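Input for the complex:
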Amino acid sequence: AQRVTQPEKLLSVFKGAPVELKCNYSYSGSPELFWYVQYSRQRLQLLLRHISRESIKGFTADLNKGETSFHLKKPFAQEEDSAMYYCALSLNSGGYQKVTFGTGTKLQVIP
Amino acid sequence: ETGVTQTPRHLVMGMTNKKSLKCEQHLGHNAMYWYKQSAKKPLELMFVYSLEERVENNSVPSRFSPECPNSSHLFLHLHTLQPEDSALYLCASSHATGRSSYNSPLHFGNGTRLTVT
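Predicted:
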């Protein structure tokens, strides 16, 4: 069975400092990995996905199959980045998405 | 209104009550999901409907009964719940993409905060 691990419940960084939110997964095949974000009083929403290979709001994430990791990074944290971040592994189960989420990491950016 | 809308936002019910949660999406998606979010636990997938057919039921107790009358609406009927069922219930939708390798991301509602007394 697939599993997603986010080892940090809370990550506090100062504004302008680099950020790395860790995510490791276990799955024997080729999964698709996502990062979802939930800002205060907002709904859970997609931040980025590994197949897009794009930077969203300054965040990037690279899929490392050797280390089975998909860490989320940003070189300079901003206060508006404070939120809950969820790593997710998605499998296409014949038409719908079977998504396994990690427990989430709360990012707190200190002014 | 666009997006995924869930009602009510908050619900308090006794263990003998019967209530229903409603979810509506205006994104043209044809797969809909119920997730349960409890404190300190990852989101738990409860049910999935793809093209209005239930395709996943993750060992959810029968006191939770889903209904998907069409591709835009999803309900979760609740009866004789237990206090441990108190949680945030999230609805999500996505495109049902067949067997392609493309995984459509999930679009979530704001959730219903359920408290069972």
